[in-house]
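Hi everyone,

Forwarding the result from last night's run.
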Amino acid sequence: MKIALAQMDIFWCDKEKNKSKCIEFMRKAQSSNVDLILFPEMTLTGFCMDVQCVAEEDNKTLTWFKEQAKNFNLNIGFGYVKKEGNKGLNIFSMISKDGIVLSKYTKLHPFSFASETDYYTSGDEIVFTKVNEFLTSTFICYDLRFPEIFQIASSKSELITLIANWPSVRREHWITLLRARAIENQCYVAGVNRVGTGNGIEYVGDSMIIDPLGNILATSLNNEELIVADINIEAVHKLRNSFKVKADRRNDFYSSLLHGI
């Protein structure tokens, strides 16, 4: 399967300008025979705490991406905000090339350091969906710091995807944790981040596609570009069958310790 990461500079809270930019990325992906394209967290707005401004009740963003998936014959992963009472839901949705909603994942860990917890409600479900031959799980940004959910996801999934607005000040954490999650879980990890400046915060990308051994297959620093790599499901199965880390895990023991924390 060929996967692409749309490392884009997001216009701050300007959905129409960002739609035009997304179309250019999708056009490039189509010409490169990409199967799945991923866009950064809160794709059409940037990481914004003004829920009243960015949140939707009418699913306009979801509907728009469904149309583009059919137009460009692409599976698409993207982020948007849905209204939920007085707060919002930070969502990562996957759409099939036929315009069918494959999954909707709500961020499990809103970023309390940036007061996201004051404006967004936590999700309560790990999501699995099939994209071509790959069983895939979806996470968002700060979720990367919580390895337990990746272990649960990789009990089934061969590909874990993560969309983010991860600031440059913690760049090394992003790179290190993405590679660690691939190695720990013996699966492909694809993390897409934005570039540019949003609300005074600098982002430098480092979007990357990583194989099950932790090797970076494709990445880019601080450039607005489409990052593409081929991934092979047999590489996951071969590694898991020959180096059986999962079989050596003591999940019941770990669970008993967690109950005591």
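Residues 2-259 form a domain with the Nitrilase/N-carbamoyl-D-aminoacid amidohydrolase fold (CATH 3.60.110.10).

Cheers,
N.
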